[in-house]
Design goal:
This protein has 428 residues and is of the alpha+beta class. It is built from 8 helices and 12 strands. The protein is rod-shaped and about 145 Å long.
Length: 428
């Protein structure tokens, strides 16, 4: 049965780990795909916005060049109509010396471009554009285009376009990130909830299987205990009768004592099996923890080490007195056995919110790391004379009373720490 429980626990751990890794990988893959696609769409929207500005500017520049070739004058009516498009913030035509020959603001005709603009007014390419900010603080797109007159004279056409339509496209694309963020939050929320549901389902399944195994143990124990007890009773009675008939110095007496000890050992095992496998009923009451701990210490095996007890006298918990006392005695006995003849046993209890926490701390050798996941598995024990049912029984009855139990190595120094949580009574 111990092998079955160990295999089931390892199988559940592997299943949960595989489930979480698979779900996390799926969520990361989907999230990466969504983010990559959104980034590509956003980049495409920015490129399309710039291309739209360039196309508009190039179309207006080509039309202006055609009008200039047809009329020969930059101030013709057709030229003004072309450059009066509402997307145009302003437009100008300048000669090579930087003098403005045409401007949508007539007052600037005849002025000269600043020196820093003269350095860029004759680009290597026929056309070039860049984003700028107007003196009003508004964003704009500046497009330089080289006009060629029929006589071969080259002039600079500068168009400054409003970027509102293009910026609207980029703004709409930027809003996608908010939508994507909401989708990712929803996706991960659903993923976490799904992981919780599946984990809960696996735990319920494992718990149902564990209960099934425990029920099987109970059935087996009920059938075997009667026959074993009858046989042990006859054997024990006959050995005791023979022992009484022998003289005190008879050399056969030590052998009979060994037989009696073996019989008592088997009786103890049968009793523990019956205790663990039976269906428990609980009589919950308000218990004074300090006095219960004192009783558990007194009931523990004699020991030469030091016992330190710290608990508020008015600390109370809801529990079944007999069962909690048995759990405490078992925890203290295990701690003493791990330390040998000497050591320091620290027992403390305090309130932690809705819980009463009980700590049983020893200075023994501690627990091997490989054994920690199997500590509460029935029939698993590291002791040569143990049954592996003490901790399993403690976990069973504590959970039945609404409590919890944990056993781990101490964070500082050698030894182990047993932590028991029981519901607080709510009294101040």
């Amino acid at each position: 049965m111990g092998i079955i429980f160990k295999g089931q626990k390892r199988g559940r751990l592997f299943s949960l780990t595989g489930l979480r890794i698979g779900l996390a990988f799926f969520l990361l893959l989907v999230s990466a795909a969504i983010i990559y696609t959104t980034a590509q769409n956003y980049s495409s929207a920015q490129s399309l916005a710039i291309q739209a500005l360039e196309s508009t500017a190039l179309a207006l520049s080509s039309s202006a060049e055609s009008a200039l070739r047809a009329s020969g004058s930059p101030i013709s009516m057709e030229m003004r109509q072309i450059l009066s498009d509402r997307i145009v913030a302003y437009a100008l035509i300048a000669g090579k010396n930087g003098q403005v020959l045409f401007h949508t603001n007539p007052r600037l005709v005849g002025s000269y471009l600043p020196d820093e603009e003269l350095q860029q007014k004759w680009p290597a390419r026929t056309a070039s554009g860049r984003r700028i900010t107007l003196l009003t603080g508004l964003p704009a797109y500046q497009f330089n285009y080289i006009l060629h007159r029929p006589d071969g004279t080259a002039e600079l056409l500068r168009l400054v376009l409003h970027t509102t339509p293009a910026d609207r496209i980029i703004s709409e694309a930027r809003r996608m990130w908010w939508t994507v963020g909401a989708v990712l939050v929803l996706l991960w929320t659903v993923g976490v909830l799904l992981e919780r549901v599946l984990t809960h389902h696996l735990r319920l399944k494992e718990e149902a299987e564990r209960r099934k195994q425990l029920a099987l143990i109970g059935q087996m124990t009920a059938v075997l205990a009667h026959e074993i007890r009858n046989a042990l009773g006859s054997m024990k009675g006959y050995v005791q009768w023979v022992d009484e008939k022998l003289e005190a110095e008879d050399i056969r007496k030590p052998g009979l004592m060994a037989v009696l000890q073996g019989v008592e050992r088997i009786e103890s095992l049968v009793n523990e099996l019956l205790l663990f496998s039976r269906e428990e009923t609980f009589h919950l009451e308000r218990l004074a923890i300090a006095s219960l701990l004192q009783e558990a210490i007194q009931a523990a095996p004699p020991w030469r080490g030091t016992v330190e007890l710290a608990s508020a006298p008015d600390l109370r918990a809801m529990a079944d007195r007999e069962k909690l006392l048995r759990v405490l005695i078992n925890g203290i006995r295990n701690a003493i056995q791990s330390m040998g003849e000497k050591g320091i046993l620290k027992i403390a209890a305090h309130q932690d919110g809705p819980w009463v926490q009980i700590h049983i701390e020893d200075t023994g050798a501690g627990i091997p790391a490989a054994e920690i996941p199997l500590l509460f598995t029935p029939f698993h024990t590291t002791k040569t004379d143990g049954t592996g049912l003490g901790l399993a029984y403690s976990k069973k009855v504590l959970e039945g009373m609404g409590g919890k139990i944990k056993l781990a190595n101490r964070e500082r120094g050698a030894g182990a720490l047993l932590t028991i949580h029981m519901p607080h009574t709510g009294e101040k």
